[in-house]
Write a structure and sequence with these properties.
globular; single chain; about 40% helix; alpha/beta; TIM Barrel; 10 helices; binds zinc ion
């Protein structure tokens, strides 16, 4: 357990707005991770579905405790696994659990232009079909956006969603951040800007309005600089928060409070506010 995290966060509440705690990486010690998260003030975690066959696992984990909420979606990186009927099945999942407090978003969906093998037209089709579902069920979309900000921004402008969501692991420019702000989207920040060599991103993070930021880990991916080896974990969120607060020249408590407030607004949570 991180004494530093406990000392810094006495009384502060944190939300991990994006992780994959259902992944097998956590099978050996998931309950230990959870216990440490609770001790450190990480009060809620949003579990993201990435392909059809992991939705049940994500849903079961989400219902195993008060700590979780979940989203269902078809992630662009797993394009080869998705089938047309999976979009129809996603609609059934959303319809079946509509209004359930554990269902908080549609995701992880989006466009990935970094991996060359992922057909862009196919991705766009899948992305739009799922944005239409977010619109239909009035859920915020949680977006994976890699080297594809222009296409995502243009798509979102056409959709005019009733509920805006989160650009997860935001690594774009200040201008792109401004475009997302106009669309009502929040920006998810995690391990990437904690690395000293991420100069460009750290400058952007320093300038973002606090109202735009939500914290996340993307565990088990995107390890932060202070825990560089092995898997990332939601228990590192207090350390990530402290590092990002230092970049911005605010206290970790201020950043934690802003992120929690913003996340509650995105997901419509009343129980954690106050
Ligand atoms: Zn993710």
């Amino acid at each position: 357990m991180s004494d530093r995290g406990e000392a810094v966060y006495a009384g502060a509440m944190l939300i991990d707005t994006h992780n994959h705690l259902d992944f097998p990486d956590f099978d050996a010690d998931r309950s230990g991770v959870l216990a440490r998260c609770r001790a450190l003030g990480v009060r809620r975690q949003v579990l993201l579905g990435v392909f059809r066959d992991n939705w049940q696992r994500v849903w079961d984990l989400a219902n195993s405790g008060d700590d979780f909420c979940t989203a269902f979606g078809l992630h662009p990186v797993y394009l080869a696994q998705h089938r047309d009927e999976h979009v129809a099945e996603l609609r059934q999942w959303l319809a079946r659990h509509a209004g359930h407090p554990k269902l908080c978003a549609v995701g992880e969906i989006g466009l990935d232009y970094f991996v060359p093998e992922l057909d862009r037209d196919e991705q766009q089709r899948l992305f739009e079909a799922q944005l239409a579902l977010a619109q239909e069920f009035e859920l915020p979309p949680l977006l994976h956006v890699r080297r594809s900000h222009a296409a995502v921004i243009a798509t979102l402008k056409r959709f005019r969603l009733k509920r805006a969501g989160i650009i997860h692991a935001f690594a774009g420019s200040a201008e792109e951040a401004k475009e997302y702000r106009k669309l009502g989207f929040r920006l998810g920040l995690g391990g990437a800007p904690t690395w000293p060599q991420a100069n460009r991103l750290r400058k952007v993070v320093a300038q973002l309005p606090l109202e735009d930021i939500v914290l996340e880990t993307d565990s088990p991916d995107m390890a932060p600089a202070m825990h560089p080896y092995g898997r990332n974990s939601p228990e590192f969120l207090p350390d990530i928060c402290a590092a990002l607060a230092a970049i911005r020249g605010v206290t970790p408590e201020e950043l934690a409070a802003a992120s929690t407030r913003n996340a509650c607004e995105v997901f419509g949570w009343k129980d954690l506010q106050g």
